[in-house]
Amino acid sequence: MSTDGASSSAPPRKKRTILDLQALKRKKVPITVLTAHDYPSARFIEAAAAPVPGADGAPASLPRGIDICLVGDSLAMVACGYESTNQLSLDEMLYHCRSVARGCTTSLLLADLPFGTYAASVEDGVRAAVRLVQEGRMDAVKIEGGQEVLPLVRHLTSAGIPVMGHVGLTPQRQASLSGYRVQGKTVESATQVYRDALALQDAGAFGVVIEAVPSALAQWITDRLAIPTIGIGAGMHTSGQVLVQLDMLGVDSDLGASGKGPRFLRKFGDVGPHARDAVRAYVDAVRGGEFPVEGQHTYPMSDETFQAFCHAMEAKQ
Ligand SMILES: Nc1nc(=O)c2c([nH]1)NC[C@@H]1CN(c3ccc(C(=O)N[C@@H](CCC(=O)O)C(=O)O)cc3)CN21
Ligand SMILES: CC(C)C(=O)C(=O)O
Ligand SMILES: [Mg+2]
């Protein structure tokens, strides 16, 4: 088995750069962002960068697959079962980052700075970001917030750590925002979202996630920013889109009893029901004596060797 994350014959694929993202925005080619939280989910992303046999796929001039692989702090909820993203520690985040980095080599690797790692001081934020790069093997970090995170964004960008902003619905502030609520619905709130995005650009951010705002606002902001905007629940006129991988696979990990999730979610797969069916089928097969099957799932031993083994055991008794 190859361990380099690609099949042994294929040449290594070129890693996506910030320059590539800027070119995509300029050409109005939507930027694709998807989360990963472990090795298999990273490998699913890496697989999307491979040419599709038999299909001509994307034009050769365009990079294939997922442009940015986000190790989002939503993994706290979807992969760890925490109540909110705010319970995730930096050490836990680092563990997930390292697993993702082993599986995904073509996409730009981006990680959320976890809640509480940058609130007390700029120094704390810089230290946390450096750990995500050095120990977590990330290329860039994402930071939720506006005005209040600008000093940190300036520090990191001048230190050579690329920063993606995150405005609109910022889940780390869900308590202050009284829940996961759409932002930018009033003149004041819309103005705030725009000012935050613009200020992040001025502070050096290479892009900004805009979450759960009316699409007209997201488009208005996208048209006025030079850097790419990545929307989630922000309509089709942002420079790109992001979803949580387990959501779009249809795993329903933290979506509650209804399993429906936020309005902006589209399920591109039905993995949850398939996985649950498979577990039940396994139970039935074991209980019903249908698994494992002799000769198919078993290792052979010659009769001669087995007889010799039995004699050896008898001799010892
Ligand atoms: N599985 C998962 N997917 C996510 O996208 C996600 C998480 N978890 N956890 C962290 C945050 C929380 N997010 C959320 C969670 C809920 C809504 C939601 O229910 N929104 C309502 C709008 C409520 C309103 O303002 O009226 C909706 O109906 O879409 C939105 C974003 C996005 N992030
Ligand atoms: C949904 C994206 C933008 C995110 O921040 C996360 O997955 O944590
Ligand atoms: Mg996040």
Structural shape: elongated
CATH topology of the largest domain: TIM Barrel
Q: Secondary-structure element sequence?
A: HEHEHHEHEHEHEHEEHHH
Ions, cofactors and other ligands present here are: 5,10-methenyl-6,7,8-trihydrofolic acid, 3-methyl-2-oxobutanoic acid, magnesium ion
Helix content: 25-40%
The CATH superfamily of the largest domain is Phosphoenolpyruvate-binding domains
What's the total count of β strands? 8
CATH architecture verdict of the largest domain: Alpha-Beta Barrel
Sheet with the most strands: spatial strand order? 1-2-3-4-5-6-7-8
- Class from helix and strand fractions: alpha/beta
Please describe the biggest sheet, giving its number of strands, its sense, and whether it closes into a barrel. 8 strands, parallel, barrel
How many structural domains are formed by the residues? 2
Looking at how many chains there are and whether they match, the oligomeric state comes to: single chain
* N/C terminus separation: 44 Å
Parts with pLDDT < 50 across at least 5 consecutive residues: 1-7
Proportion of beta-strand residues: 5-15%
* CATH class type of the largest domain: Alpha Beta
